[in-house]
Amino acid sequence: MTAPKIIGPALPNMPWQERPAGNNDVVWRHAENPIIDWNPTKDIARVFNSAVVPYENGFIGVLRAEPRTGVPQLHLARSKDGLSWDIEEKPIVWIDEEGNPYPPNYAYDPRLVKVEDTYYIIWCTDFGGAALGLGMTKDFKTFTRLENPFIPFNRNGVLFPRKLNGKYQLLSRPSDSGHTPFGDIFISESPDLVHWGKHRRVMARGGSAWWQSVKIGGGPIPIETTEGWLLFYHGVSGTCNGFVYSMGAALLDLDNPAKVLYRTKPYLLTPETPYETSGFVPNVVFPCATLHDAETGRIAIYYGAADTYVSVAYTQLDELIAYLKENSELVPGDAIAYKG
Ligand code: BMA
Question: pLDDT band at 332, cuts 50/70/90?
Answer without folding.
Answer: confident
